[in-house]
Amino acid sequence: MSIAITLTIAAAAALINIWLMMRVGKMRLAEKVSIGDGGNENVTRRMRAHSNFIESAPLVLILIAAIELSSGTSMALWAVSALYILGRIAHALGMDGGAMEKGRLIGTIITILTLLGLAGWAVYIGYGL
């Protein structure tokens, strides 16, 4: 059985993780903070964007894989998975504030809805409802 969605979204998540790490590093250099956040709000924002991604990505990937292994590849799963990735990018950009600040809320809502939707879908499959 192919798990093309899981592989694609896991690869995208890895790239986003690297991008978020680089954004934290860039801000630390700019703000001259070598460890932690140094009490600097800009560094804290970037670190929280990265941490927030790490807090949700494993669960989303596990649910995508379980659903794909149980039910196969589907356009609906592709759509939900792609939307999650876009939401995480919007959230990270929104954490910087400014013109993209609404991205934080949009990304948060997308993440919550993705987790709820995938969890419900997994229960539906698991119990044959």
The total of beta strands comes to 0
User: How large is the share of residues in beta strands?
Assistant: under 5%
Terminal CA distance: 23 Å
Mean pLDDT: 96
Instruction: Tell me which oligomeric state these chains represent.
Output: single chain
What is the radius of gyration? 16 Å
Characterize the overall form: elongated
Helix content: over 70%
Largest sheet: none
Order of helices and strands: HHHH
Number of helices: 4
Class derived from helix and strand content: mainly alpha
Uncertain residue segments: none
Structure description:
It is a single chain. With 129 residues, the chain is mostly helical. 81% of the residues lie in helices and 0% in strands. It is built from four helices and no strands. The protein has helices at residues 4-31, 41-71, 75-94, 102-126. Helix 2 runs parallel beside helix 4 (102-126). The longest helix is centred in the middle third of the chain and has 31 residues, at 41-71. The two termini are 23 Å apart. The model has no long low-confidence stretch (mean pLDDT 96).
Short structural description:
With 129 residues, this protein is mainly alpha-helical.
